[in-house]
Each structure stands twice: as structure tokens, then as C-alpha cells.
Amino acid sequence: MNAIVLLLVGLSTFAVGYFVYSKFLAEKIYQLDPDFETPAHTMEDGIDYVPSRKIILWGHHFAAVAGAAPIVGPGIAVVWGWLPAFLWVTLGTVFFAGVHDFGALWASVRNRGLSVGALTENIVGQRARSIFMIVIFLLLLMVNAVFANIIANEHISVPGSVIPTWAVIAVAMMVGWLIYKKGMSLLWVTIIGVSVLYGAIWVGDIYPLSLPETMFGLPAAAQWVIILFVYAGIASILPVWLLLQPRDYINGIQLFIGLGLLYTAILIAAPEVVAPAINSNPPANAPPLVPLLFVTIACGAISGFHGLVASGTTSKQLDKETDGRFVGYFGSVGEGTLALAAIIACTAGFATVADWNAFYSVPFPAPGLTAWAQGGAAIMSAGLGLPAGLAETLLAVMGILFAATTMDAGVRLQRFIIQEFGNIYDIPVLTGRTISTLVAVGTCLLLAFGAGGGEAGAGGLVIWPLFGTSNQLLAGLTLMVITVYLIKLRRPIWFTAIPLTFLMVMTVPALLIQLVGFYNDGNWLLVVMDILILVASILVALEALAAFGRARREAAAGPPTG
Question: What average pLDDT is seen over the chain?
């Protein structure tokens, strides 16, 4: 099959999802009100609560949720063949991710910008909130540790990525200053910012940089992990308009330029998909397609982390409630287009089926980000005539920048969670930004260095198998909260309840399969974390079921409660 077919079918599906299905959700289910005063206005503080232009907020939200996972996940999952990955990404984006991300944003905006963890108390109950926030905290630990390792390893394997990755920080601060302090036209700021960023990519390809192989007894990867967490901690306490939001916006624009180049190259080169639709000979250690496909591809189909971003940072910046459809649903569509590109790069970026089989015959999981960079670079070289090295640097930088924006958002969200714990349990020392940030960064570093299996800073690599499953469980729990809220408002619930049921049916068995594997491997850290997340999720689900019953009785007895 030609890759153009996958590209056109996928993009057409996403277009129908946004223009038809999201409009239905906005009007009939979430019932957006253009006159509703959002928390960005009622609680504006110039740091976290900041009314923002729709396009800028979309760029921030999209970049924060579209980390390296929608590249890595599909890049691993095509080992089962391109068809299951393609169907899950396209249908999952339209009927799962869009509903989840849009719903989490809407519910948070309707409840003073509370995070989904704190929101659980209002909608489900106090006990569920406390348990749910433990799940969220553990997931954020994993997100931050995983993406720190991804960035560190890419900096080492593609040293040309170092200059553009760090230059974007200065570019973002310049963009924030010009927009918010100088009132400069968004169009000109965007042109300047993106031009400087792509200039940095060209410079980085010419002047690659590397850290020493060892310093203070630490390998280069561990050095990068420390540097990344120091940066993320500082970034998490800066005003959102100064760094996080403009960085995510510029990254969102450069991603779509990069995707545009890749998609154009696909249309010109018309590469054949050499991978099989269904792979009948996956590696011997590969887990079963069902249910593991649905947790291997999390971001790019549906991801619980998106609900944390939507309710943790995005809801505090939404200018109008009606902007939520574009920011929330279209943000998930944007990530779907990235996952679609990853599938094509990892299945049509190889010259022959023998080359593809050679790459994916390694023990599961295969290095998805490497397949993306190499396969995508081959397509761009064939279609656009770009030098292979420059094309690979461009694609590697895309993956790194989105992993970095996810880290930025993840550490900030972890700081929010710690502050919420401080408020809930009356621990004043945890309510300040500085101490809560130090706790967030410190726990991430403990996991990164304590779970490395003897390799300093490599904890993120060790916990990767548990990340996808935990992420999908969180998405299911978030859909539970949204569903209960809809019941209380006496609105239809099937559009959230069906994705919720599917996720729980697939994810809980996947968690049990992984638990057995961790036990057989003697990986006791992952055994403990797996059990904690499984037990906590079951407890939250039981609380939510009780809340379902209460909400139905309340809805039958009187008018909507919110």
C-alpha cells in the first residue's frame, strides 16, 4: 500500500471528527456558554491565571500534551503491523482523545480551574480525591523521569539537536516579552520566532555539541537529566506568559511546519508501506496485541496526561469557554496528526520489508524515536532533497522539543499537585511555589537515579513499561469524573461512558499482565508501583460507581446541580 492512502484517510477522519463530532459535543453535551466568565478572568494573577488568545493557548496546550510519546508509542506499536496502530490512532483521536481532553478542560473551567484531582472531590467525593491524587502524582513522576531520559539519550545520539533545543528557551522568552509587554503583532512575532528557531537547527547541524563522557563520576546521560530537571524547576515558577506558554506556542508552530514538510515529502516521494498490515512474526518477547496495543499507544489516541494539562494549566488561561472546543478537541487532533506521521515514518521510511524486519526483530520494545528520525529523514530526503543528516536533526529536534515542553508542563503540574496537598492537609510549607517545586524536582530525581538499575539517571527507561498503562488508567478515571458530572447536569453520558468502559476493560488486564512480568523479572520497584496504581484505581472506580448512583438519584429528584 502507498503511504499517501494512509495519510489522506487519516487526515480526512480527523477533519470529520473536528468539524462534525466536536461541534456536536460543544453544543449538545458540554453546552459551551460564550458569556460564562472563565477562571482566567475571575482569578487572574498574572502567573498561572492569564487570559490568553485562542491560537496562542492552543499552541501551548498542544505542545504540552504532544510530547515524544505520540512518536515513541506508535514507533513501538507498529511491531504488530501498521493496521492496528493506524485504526487506534485515527478512531481513538476522534472518539476517545477529543472527548476526554475537551471534557477535562470544560469541567475544570466550570469549577474554578481546579485540576482533575481536586475536581474529583467536588464531583465524586473527598475519599476519591485523595486516592486519585496519589495516582496523578505517581504518573507525573513517571512522565518527568521518562521524558528526561528520552531527551538525554537523543542529545547523545544526535548532538546537532543540542543548540536548537536550548536556543528555543531564549526564543520563547523573546516571544512572550514582545507579545505581552510590547504588544507586537502576533504574526510578526511568530515569523521572527520560528525563523530564529529554524536558524538554530541549521547551526546545530553544523556545530554539534556533546557533554563529557563522564563528569563527577556521572555519564553524559545522567548529566543531561540533572541539567533538565534544574531547568524544569526554574521554568515551573516563572510566569506562564514568559516562558511556558510562548515556548509551547512556538513549538506547536514549528511542529506543524515540520509535519507539513514531512507530509509534502510523502505526497512527492509516494513511498510504499513496507511493513505488514498485521505482523505474524513479532519478536518472541512481544506482549499480546490485545490489550497491550491500547497502552503502548497512549498519547496519539488518548492519554490521561492530557487531562492533567487541560485541567492543570490550560483551564487557567482560557479566555472564553467557547474557545475550549478549538483548544481542547483540536489540540488532540493535532497530536493525532503527529502519531499518524510517526506510523508512516516507521512503516514507509524503510527501503524494503527486509530492512523493516531487521529493525523490528530486536527484543520488544524497539526504539520508536530512532525509527521516526531515520524513517522520516529517508522520506524527506527522497521527497524534498534535504541532506539526510539535516533531515534527521530536524526530526530529532521536533521529538526533543516536545518531550521538553511535556517536562515543563509536568513539573509545573506536579508543583500544583503538591500545593493542593498542602492546602488540603493544612501543610503551609507545601503551599508556596519554591518549596513545592523543590519537592517536585527532588522526587523526580530520586526516581530517575534510584530506579536506574545501576545506571545513573536511567530510571525513566526502567519505568517506561508502566508509564503507558498508568496513563490510560488515569484517562479512564478522568472520564469517570466527567461522566458523573454530566449525570449531575442531567446530560447524555454515552459519549464519555463508552470510551471509559473500553479503556478500563483494556487497561486493567494490561496492568495485571505487566505485574506478572515485573514479578518474573524480579523488578520489585515496578511491582510495588504497579500494585499501588492498580489498587488506587480500583478504589477510585468503586467511589465513582457509588457517585454514579447518587448522581442519578439526585438528577431524578430535581433540576441540574451545576
Answer: 87
